[in-house]
Amino acid sequence: MLNQEAYALGANRSCIRELFEYGRQRAAIVGAENVFDYSLGNPSIPSPPEVNETIGQILADTDSLTLHGYTTAVGDLATRKAIADDLNRRYGTGITPNELFIGCGAAPELCAVLKAVTTPGAKVLALAPYFPEYKPFAESAGAVFAVVPPDVPNFQIPFDALEEMLTQEVSAIIVNSPNNPAGTVYTEETLKKLAALLAKKSQAFGHPIYIIADEPYRELCYDGITAPFIPTIYKNTIVCYSYSKSLSLPGERIGYIYVPRQADDGEDLYLAVAGAARAAGHVCAPSLWQKVIARCTHLRPDLCAYDKNRRALYDGLLACGYEVAKPDGAFYLFVKAPGGDANAFSEYAKTKDVLLVPGDGFGCPGWFRLCYCVSYDQIIRSLPVFAQMIREYK
Ligand code: PLP
Predict the structure, then answer these.
(1) Ligand 1 centroid vs 107 CA: distance in angstroms?
(2) CA of 106 relative to ligand 1 center, distance in Å
(3) Is 255 in the pocket of ligand 1 (CB under 6 A)?
(4) 60 exposed, middle or buried (CB, 10 Å; 0-12, 13-18, 19+)?
């Protein structure tokens, strides 16, 4: 007997993957240069050269058994210490290695944390627009997933709607800043207001409401903006971090979870996260990559190429007459669909070989996402097509 929920997840390909596959098929027919594919968030700037150089050094100076052997499940102490030191330098915190768990990227880290902070039937909130995988992650943990409607067009936090949804059963809220798909960064003021509201409700309900900070894009901010480090604003914050985007390593599967001891039930919470990861089959994060990260925590992405793309696409679309959310971070642009139906507009755009992702799957109908980790040339050549589409679309 098959598990029907698992089957449904496997059988229904995501809309983003469908578009990406469609783009490959079209490229084979009309040529890759004639397909303007904005569907998939795959980093397009190379990792800093020090990453590969470090791999060479590690291969040269580490014996093979150590290099390829299991590490402890929570991760090498040297790696956790290096990450703690880096965070403490940047945020003035006093994080210790015992509060860090080295994971295999934000996706499995989120699954472990969601499992750790929910009992069956507990509710997890996400703020629209949100990363669509949150829903299966939360539901497979046995939680009820609910979405706070978007704060259009600023995409900060709609506090009245959120307060109404903060009921006794809510055990966590997922906060993703910089945001996929809107590119917005929650301001310190917004986060302080969120912290005050959650503290008030936690006290009223007699249990903590945790923030699960999903932060694969933390360092991807522009115009001098920095994403606040949420644990310094709200003590019951668990951070799921990933090097997939910040060091352009999405296929290597490496990141970490920060579970503050100062959080309510902090010590037990850490053990629950470790236990949830164990139950999902986590043995350890890739040993080589743990060793690389231990020597590379100081590296930051060179955002010049993304920033150039962001400006060109944002300014170009505004000039064509599109309404676009102000993109302060990540590598996505969120755009209001002409005519109001993003699915219909996406289908129309396909006829021009422009691939854009409707916002419905992100909990924000009527908008679409463009992923601008593409070549600058693609952006420049696609702008006349965007101009034509908004002119001609009925
Ligand atoms: N969270 C968000 C908001 C993302 O956009 C992604 C990937 O695109 C993930 C989590 C998963 O990232 P990882 O590669 O670290 O599992």
Answers:
(1) 6
(2) 5
(3) yes
(4) exposed
